[in-house]
Amino acid sequence: MVNASASPAVTTNKKTLWKVIGASSLGTLIEWYDFYIFGSLAIVISTKFFPPDNPTAAFLSTLATFAAGFVVRPFGALFFGRLGDIIGRKYTFMVTLLLMGLATCAIGLVPGYETIGFAAPIIVLVLRLLQGLALGGEYGGAATYVAEHSEPHKRGFRTSWIQTTATFGLFISLAVIMLTKSSMSAEAFDDWGWRVPFLISSVMVVVSYFIRRNMDESPLFKKAKNEGKTSTNPLRESFGKKYNFKFVLLALFGATMGQGVIWYTGQFYALSFLQSVCKVDFDQTNFIIGCALLAGTGFFVFFGWLSDKIGRKPIMLAGMLLAVLTYRPIYDRMYRLTDVEAKQELMEQRRTVGQTLVKVYNDGSTATVVSQGDAVTQTVKVGQRAFFFLALLVFIQVLYVTMVYGPIAAFLVEMFPVHIRYTSMSLPYHIGNGIFGGLLPAVATYLVTKAQAANMAQQASGALPYDKPYLEGLWYPIIIASVSFIIGLLYIKNKNQDVQ
C-alpha cells in the first residue's frame, strides 16, 4: 500500500462524527434506492418501455439497460472524483445527489412504448446513464468524507455504516414497491402505479440535500487545501504515475472485482434467478429477498468493526472463497425448492378459472398457469417451509456480501493519499462494481437462457449439453471471484494504515 507520513489526528468530536455518518449515509442510501428501483422493477419495466411481442428479449433488454448504468459509473468516478479532489468532497456529492434524483424522477414520467415507440427505451437508457454517472461520483465522496472524519483505529467500523446503505437502499426499494402494489389493484399498479416508487425519490432527495448542505468539509481536505497541497491534476497523478497506478490496479483486480460480483450475485442475481428462472411470484420473491437483507445488513458493521481488529484482507478473501465454493450448491437447492415438477400435485385441489389453471402441491406450493393463445406462463408460490429455506439461502449469500463489502471503503481509503484519494479510490471501486458486478445479472441470465435453449434443442436425441442449465450463469461470478481471490492473496498486504 501507499506509504506516507503520518497525518494529523482527527479532532472531530463523537457527536459531530455521528452527524457526518448519518448525513452521508442517508444521502448515499437515497442514491442507492434510486439506482435499485430500476432493477427491482425490471420485470414490470420490460413490458412498458420495450416491444411486447417477445417477453424474453424485452426482459434481457431491460437488464442490459440496467447494466448500462453500471458501465458508465467509472466515467462518473473520473469526472466527479476529479472535482472532489480539487473543489472538495461536500459540494461534489451534493451535485451527484441532485443529478440522481432528477434522473430517477424523470424515469417515472417517461411515456411507455405504446405511446412514443422506440423513443421510450432510448430516453430511459439516457436517464439510466445519468444515474450511473451520479452514482459513480457519490460513493467515493461519501466514503472518503466519513473516513477523513474518523479515528484511524475505528475507520473500518465508521465507514461500514456507509456500506449498509447499498443493502438498505435495495430493501427500501422493495418495501416501497410492495407497499405501493398492496395499496391499489393489480391493474392500477400495472397501468401507472409502478411509476410511484420513482416519483417518491424526489421528496427524499430534497430532504437529504438540505441536510447535506449544512455539513462541513472534511478536516483533512481543508487542511490540505489551506496548505496548498491539493492536486491540480488528480487524474494525471492517480493514473499517470506508475507507483500510484500500480495500487489502482491492485485495488481493482485484488479486491473490488471479486467484491463486485459477490455483491450483485447475492442481491440482484438472487432476485433475478427466483423471478426469471424459478418463476416465483413477484411479491413473494421480494419478501424472500427483503427478509434476507434485513437479517444480514447488521453484519456490514460487524465485519467493518472486525477489520479494525484483524485487518481488511482476511475477511474480504474469506468471503470470496466461501462464495466460490458454495454458489452452485446454494443455487441448485434454490431451484429444487421451487421446482413444482418434482413435487406431488394434489389433483383434487386443481381448479380452472377461464384461461387460468391453478395447481396445488403437497408442500403448500401453488402454480398458476395462464394461457393466452400460444403463450403459456407459469408463476409459482412456494409453501412456508420452502419460503424459509429460500430466505436462509439468500441470507447466506448476503453474509458473503457483508464480508467482502463491509471493510472495502476503509481498505480503499487507506491505499491512497489525501490529495488524490477521491479519484484514485473511486475508479477501481466503480469498475469492479459497475462493470464486473453490474453486468452480472444480464450476463448470467443470458448464459442460463442460452443453456436452456440448447437443452431444448437436444431433447429429441437425449444428448443434453448441460447437466444443470439453470446453474450456468454462476460461472461468471465464480471465475471472477476466483481470480480476484488469488491476486488478493498473493499481493495485498494485511495492514491497516493511518490516514495519509
UniProtKB/TrEMBL annotation:
Protein's UniProt keywords contain Cell membrane: yes
Topological category with respect to the lipid bilayer: Multi-pass membrane protein
Keyword Signal: no
Any one GO CC term of the record: plasma membrane
Main location: membrane
Domain Major facilitator superfamily (MFS) profile, first and last residues per copy: 20-496
UniProt subcellular location: Cell membrane
Residue stretches spanning the membrane: 20-45, 57-79, 91-110, 116-140, 161-180, 192-211, 247-266, 286-307, 314-331, 386-413, 434-454, 474-492
Signal peptide: none
GO MF annotation, one: transmembrane transporter activity
Record-linked PROSITE patterns: MFS (PS50850), SUGAR_TRANSPORT_2 (PS00217)
Keywords: Cell membrane, Membrane, Transmembrane, Transmembrane helix, Transport
InterPro entries: MFS_dom, MFS_sugar_transport-like, MFS_trans_sf, Sugar_transporter_CS
Protein name as catalogued: Predicted arabinose efflux permease, MFS family
